[in-house]
Design brief:
Layout (H helix, E strand, L loop, with lengths): L29 E3 L10 H11 L11 H11 L6 E4 L2 H12 L5 E6 L4 H8 L3 E6 L7 H6 L5 E7 L11 H10 L5 E5 L14 H5 L5 E6 L12 E4 L2 H9 L8 H12 L1 H24 L11 E4 L5 H10 L2 E6 L3 E5 L3 H16 L1
Parallel strand pairs: 1-10, 3-4, 3-5, 5-6, 6-7
Antiparallel strand pairs: 2-8, 7-8, 9-11, 10-11
Helix pairs in contact: 1-9, 2-9, 3-4, 3-8, 10-12
This protein binds pyridoxal-5'-phosphate (PLP).
Pyridoxal-5'-phosphate binds next to helix 3.
């Protein structure tokens, strides 16, 4: 059969295929496996989307100038520092396509965001995975993994799925030690949930570093996961390249208007973020009282290092109507959800703690 089929790229063999059915939720009532924001959209943002919906027979603004200017204004950078895409994953892909030629190396921590190996392979890069040290990124080992062939390195701050963040001193020395020709992508998808003062804000701290591109998304704290919009703040030359590798018209007018309305409603949204942070601390406190060694989280999820019991834990939660994200033989990532759903997971954890 394969004889008559067109040849597909060998690099894709290592990429997991999304099979129909995998995303079916069945009787599950709570999705705590995607790090979504469980709050429903803000009325002001929903209104902006509704007003825009009537115009979807038209293409969006090709340059998304309104959103780029709004982001630049909000984060006190120039519009030429900003490039956007249809979600953080799209912007990561644009960054890879902008920096990496076939066979170049991409360095990233592992375990980390699952899109890094997938998007690196799709871009034709060679993956260099640097193991975590416990639950933390090992920036010294990552710096050592950089060779003449390295074009891009991902730092995930805080790290998905282990929830911990690298601190300013370590990040400063890492960035100092990386050659300027290597692009450092500082993935701050969860920046708004960071509370530890020693974790730097990438945009304000590294904006003058030509080889640092900071990734932010509207999917998590801003609650726009379903609309697909995110951005990078980078050197104008990098941002320009990232605009070139974008899919034309990828960011819809609905997403653009929702993002602009969300920046306007930032105070209201951040009150919700604060609620999620408080609930995260309650969950971590309870888990630690149960005896679990749960690391400090700077994101909207907690990491339970269940090792070989991860799958059983996920199944026990699913039977109670809650989906958590299982990393087999490693751990479970639990998104902070509604209080009642969190309580379900905490009660399952209490049972597992006694075993
Ligand atoms: C969620 C996430 C993103 C971006 O996700 P999008 O939904 O594509 O915006 C980027 N990086 C990390 C580490 C994430 O967890």
């Amino acid at each position: 059969m394969a004889v008559n089929a067109p040849r597909m790229r060998g690099a894709l063999d290592a990429v997991p295929a999304f099979e129909a059915g995998l995303s079916r939720f069945g009787p599950v009532q709570h999705r705590m496996n995607f790090n979504e924001n469980h709050f429903a959209p803000l009325p002001s943002v929903l209104d902006a989307v509704r007003e825009t919906a009537a115009g979807f027979n038209r293409y969006p603004d090709m340059f998304n100038s309104t959103l780029i200017e709004a982001i630049a204004g909000h984060f006190s950078v120039m519009p030429e520092n900003v490039a956007i895409g249809a979600g953080g994953a799209a912007v990561l892909q644009q960054l890879l396509l902008a920096a990496v030629d076939h066979g170049d190396e991409v360095v990233f921590p592992w375990l980390s965001f699952e899109a890094y190996p997938i998007l690196s392979s799709v871009a034709g890069a060679r993956q260099v995975r640097v193991p975590l040290s416990g639950v933390d990124q090992d920036l010294v080992a990552m710096a050592e993994a950089i060779t003449d062939r390295t074009r891009l390195v991902f730092v995930c701050n805080p790290n998905n799925p282990t929830s911990t963040a690298v601190k300013q001193d370590a990040l400063d020395s890492f960035i100092d030690s990386v050659p300027e020709r290597v692009l450092i992508v500082l993935d701050e998808a969860y920046r708004e949930f960071v509370r530890a003062p020693e974790v730097p804000d990438g945009i304000s701290r590294y904006r003058d570093r030509p080889n640092v591109a900071v990734l932010r998304t509207f999917s998590k704290a801003y609650g726009l996961a379903g609309l697909r919009v995110a951005f990078t703040v980078a050197h104008p030359l990098v941002a320009r390249a990232v605009r070139k590798t974008a899919l034309p018209f990828g960011v819809t007018r609905l997403a653009e208007r929702a993002a602009v309305a969300s920046l306007r409603a930032a105070d209201e949204l951040f009150a919700r973020v604060e609620t999620i942070v408080k609930e995260r601390e309650r969950m971590r406190g309870t888990l630690r009282e149960q005896g679990w060694p749960v690391a400090r989280s700077e994101a909207n999820f907690v990491w339970l290092p269940l090792a070989e019991r991860s799958a059983a834990f996920g199944e026990a939660c699913r039977r109670k109507g809650v989906f958590v994200r299982v990393f087999p033989d490693n751990g479970v990532r639990i998104t902070v959800g509604e209080d009642s759903a969190n309580d379900v997971v905490l009660s399952v954890a209490a049972v597992f703690a006694r075993r």
